[in-house]
Amino acid sequence: MALTYLVLLVLVGGTLPAVVRSLLPPLPRRNTGITPQAVVVLGAGRRQRDGQFSLTTRGLRRLQLAAEMAHEHSLPLVVSGGISTTPHADNEPSEAQLMAELVRRRWPTMTVLEEGKSRNTWENAVYSGELLGQRSIDEIILVSDRAHLPRALLCFQSQGVLAQAAWRKRLPKQEWVPSAGALSMVPEIWYEWLALVWYHLRYL
């Protein structure tokens, strides 16, 4: 009986935006005095249907925010993500290619730089850092999801790139009203906590 109550308490708590917000990994200390020279957006995976590849809903959300910010501030946009590890991957578009295509349709004059080699967040930072370094850019706006940004910021900082975090808010303003959207973020948050531990052991 006690275990049942505990499970119910966890489930109910996981639906409350205030509780879910408190579980988010903390962002690194904010870098002050940054003058962004580019906007970098990290991919969130691809999906395939009837032989056609497209971005995930999460990836589209990130891309929309990043492109809007790059347009607003007249900055180049770096789209970063992924090559496939499946057979015949050479014939498949990377996430970067998919993102760049969408942005160029909407803003044909925007400068879009593609980083299409990365397979994880660490490689996002390494390969994007190389691309930025070729253009003497070391201060950026970094766009991803809020739960993912602490890990992403640490990876970019390790490459000598100073970043301001930007994300699209997903948690409702009513902090104590149960929300299915809040509950859907709980597995993502726990994954990021585990990933932070792993990245500190392996990379950082």
UniProtKB/TrEMBL annotation:
TM spans (from-to): none
CDD domains hit by this protein: YdcF-like
Annotated DUF218 domain residues: 37-195
InterPro entries named in the record: Cell_Envelope_Assoc, DUF218, Rossmann-like_a/b/a_fold
Pfam families, alphabetized: DUF218
Record-given protein name: DUF218 domain-containing protein
